[in-house]
Specification:
single chain, 333 residues, alpha/beta, Rossmann fold, seven-stranded parallel β-sheet, binds guanosine-5'-triphosphate, binds magnesium ion
């Protein structure tokens, strides 16, 4: 595939094209992903998350530029769980990422899918892989919100930076509590504004109370930043680097956990769709459904019946007739 060789050579247009292919939900371009897979796994991935409008994109712009001092090629991926297919960069982010946009060593893309939330996490993993194989040694992944989608997306990052800002309102506590667990480093951005001191000390107090992190030997630091003018960025980069250094001894184990989670998810999805297809085609799906609706079979036993029938039959050969016994027959019938 020509696209693959161009991508592996680092070509930005090929990389953009490949990411568009993984963004379109399903099917993902399997051959492409298989071809580049051996060349990925080298990049360092930093996730950036936090509530809307705290200055994540402005901060990412600063970080991308800062990391260019140590990395020849930087990738930026803005993942948007709420918006439909983007087909490229969000205009607003382009505006916010002025410094990065002008630097050919920084590749910026946004990502969204029309599909379900799980699909976005998978698309993110694949887009990261493509950037990685295309030689982007450091990848910044930005996502907004505080839900499961964002947590799933942040799972693909070696280091998670949670960004907050003063003046978030009454639900600050709730927001913080929701993302406290996933942050390795915290930034209180807009430190030029009133209330930054309070936000930082509240956050520090909350982090003190998180026993897990303290036990693991890493206390998530809180850094104050002004993304607009770059204040605090060197300190933030230093903390991100410290966390990355700390990760090194367990990187192999981390990668294995990631791979196991992805494999489990894919096997689950694959098994489910194959089994369901077979059940529908063979007529057993409707049969079990009738039995459940007719209260002759409870849903748990209904599912077990389908799974064991599937495993006992050779799917494709069974036409729903040979392997005797109607499903959900009453004992007394
Ligand atoms: N005062 C001040 N404003 C800032 C700072 N950083 C960013 N902003 C402003 O905050 C607004 C939102 O910035 P973004 O970088 O788009 O924030 P975001 O978190 O990426 O926003 P979403 O992606 O929409 O959630 C913009 O108007 C920025 O110029 C800062 O350090 N101080
Ligand atoms: Mg943004």
């Amino acid at each position: 595939m020509e696209l693959v060789s161009r991508l592996l050579a680092g070509d930005a247009a090929a990389l953009a094209r490949a990411i568009t292919l993984v963004e379109c939900d399903p099917p993902s371009p399997r051959d492409l992903l298989a071809a580049i897979y051996p060349y990925a796994g080298k990049a360092r991935v930093v996730g950036i998350t936090g509530p809307p409008g705290v200055g994540k994109s402005t901060l990412v712009d600063q970080l991308a530029t800062a990391f260019r001092q140590t990395h020849a090629e930087v990738g930026v991926l803005a993942v948007d769980p709420s918006s439909p297919f983007t087909g490229g960069a969000i205009l607003g982010d382009r505006v916010r990422m002025v410094r990065s946009s002008a630097d050919p060593g920084i590749f910026i893309r946004s990502l969204a899918t029309r599909g379900q939330l799980g699909g976005l996490s998978q698309a993110t993993a694949n887009a990261i892989r493509l950037m990685d194989a295309a030689g982007r040694g450091l990848i910044l992944v930005e996502t907004v919100g505080a839900g499961q989608a964002e947590v799933d997306i942040m799972n693909h990052a070696h280091t998670v930076l949670v960004v907050l800002a003063p003046g978030l309102g009454d639900d600050v506590q709730a927001i913080k509590a929701g993302i406290l667990e996933i942050g390795h480093v915290f930034a209180v951005n807009k430190a030029d504004r009133d209330g930054a001191d309070r936000t930082s000390s509240e956050l520090e107090a909350m982090l003190e109370m998180a026993p897990d992190r303290a036990a693991g030997g890493w206390r998530p630091p809180v850094v104050r930043t002004v993304a607009r003018d770059g204040r605090g960025i060197p300190e933030l980069v230093q903390k991100l680097d410290e966390h990355w250094d700390r990760r090194q001894p367990e990187l192999g184990a981390w990668q294995r956990r990631q791979a196991a989670a992805e494999l489990a998810e894919l096997v689950g999805a694959m098994a489910r769709s194959r089994l369901q297809d077979w059940a529908v085609k063979s007529g057993r799906w409707e049969e079990v459904l009738d039995a459940i609706v007719g209260r002759r079979l409870d849903p748990q036993r209904g599912a077990e019946t389908l799974v064991s029938h599937y495993l006992n039959c050779r799917p494709g050969e069974d036409q729903g007739s040979k392997t005797g016994g109607r499903i959900g027959r009453r004992k007394d019938a």
